[in-house]
Amino acid sequence: MCIYRLGSEHIVYLDNSATTKPCGKAIEYMNKALSENWGNPSSLHTMGLNAELVLNDARACIARSIGAKEQEIIFTSCGTEANNTAVMSALSRKSRGNRVITTAIEHPSVLETVKRLEKHGFEIIYLHPDKAGVISLSELENALNDSTVLVSIMLVNNEVGSLQPIAEAVKLTKSIAPNAIFHCDAVQGYGKLPISVKKLGVDLLTASGHKIHAPKGIGFLYCKSGVRITPFITGGGQEKGMRSGTESVPLIAALQGAVEELPNLSKQLEIQKELYLYAVSLFSKCDFIKINSTHGDMPYVLNISLIGYRSETLLHFLESRDIYVSSGSACSKGHKSYVLKEMGLSDREIDGALRISFSRYNTKEDIDLLYAALNDAAKRIRKA
Ligand code: PLP
Questions:
Q1: Would the pTM count as exceeding 0.90?
Q2: In this model, does residue 4 exceed pLDDT 80?
Q3: What is the pLDDT of residues 11-63, one digit of tens each?
Q4: Which of 158, 162, 213, when mutated, tests ligand 1's pocket best, judged by the most ligand atoms within 8 Å of its CB?
Q5: Residues 194-205 pLDDT 10s
Q6: Whether 77 contacts 219, CB under 8 Å
């Protein structure tokens, strides 16, 4: 059973798309960097060099995890910063064209940033998903033209877990819009699906530490050699001038620890798929539950609706049983889910939506506890 200690309580944690529990190696590497290698990696003396060695080792490990070169990894403070950097780099390509293509179901760190590009005169085209939360390649094909300078499409949606056809989308983009760079927000896929930047063909890719059992406050942007982007944060020229600010060696070391502790991703995916299908089979027995995630390709996120109930009431009921899920994405607190709306769900279905998101630490017992609690909730909670 996935039981953590939170103060003195035992909890079943099923909100891993919001954040994950830091793993042993992440904490160990972070503590070591904090207590032993706390120098500034840019300093020329031994203490600086020691910190730089930790930084270099982490960079090499993280580059290997996506099949990239070390110099292609830019450490950032989070996935949001990496997404902002990638999207705003369209500014430096404005002389080549002003079209930017993204999807209507991206994370706000992309959607809010393309709105800023709009103010700079860019034309933003939003691709819409089908009922399964997957964008259509023919819609992308129609949207691409000579003046397209950036395409930004996420790998895995954070609310429903739909997997987007990135490799195919990159091929289309490169054949129709040679001036465009392709960015992929892989925050919900990195550390769960095997990722090869070469196979995907992307120019830029975002990942975040706290979704893979590293602490919050660390992410990275993969930037393919030869692809020019504009630094978002300027200053002392760290990260080859692409992201100034003294690198947080402890957090970067922690990310390395989390990456080293990852299991074999293909094998883990099979285990996770079994758990996901087990949950789907249980929830399908209930006539008051509708399953909104139709794909088991990315079996870490399962979105369901309890028709006639309010998700916030359900969330607090579950919390009273020490079961933690989300009423949508953690970033959209209190707002109706635009992702579910885009997928064509009714207001009633959206109002009763819950996001269950797994980590490798979850078990069938967790699902059983959730299932029993949801059945109990349906009996005890007055319908909205
Ligand atoms: N992109 C996606 C798809 C996410 O789910 C999130 C966070 O939930 C982010 C970006 C932002 O990452 P961070 O929390 O590291 O800023």
A1: yes
A2: no
A3: 999 999 999 999 999 999 999 999 999 999 999 999 999 999 999 999 999 99
A4: 158
A5: 999 999 999 999
A6: yes
Q: At what angle do helices 364-380 and 311-320 cross, to 10 degrees?
A: 120
- For residue 75, report the phi and psi dihedrals to the nearest 5 degrees: -75, 140
Q: Are 342 and 104 in contact (CB under 8 A)?
A: yes
Tell me the DSSP string of 107-136: -HHHHHHHHHHHHTT-EEEEE-B-TTS-B-
Cα–Cα distance for residue pair 309/373, rounded to 1 Å: 14
CA distance 62 to 306: 40
In the structure, which protein residues have their CB atom closer than 6 angstroms to any atom of ligand 1? 78-80, 83, 107, 109, 154, 158, 185, 187-188, 208, 210, 219, 331
**Taking a C-beta distance cutoff of 8 angstroms, is the pair 247, 41 a contact?**
yes
For 363, counting Cβ atoms within 10 Å of its Cβ (0-12 exposed, 13-18 middle, 19+ buried), the class is middle
By the 8 A CB rule, do 156 and 193 touch? yes
Q: How far is CA 44 from CA 39, 119, 250, 363, in A?
A: 10, 43, 19, 49
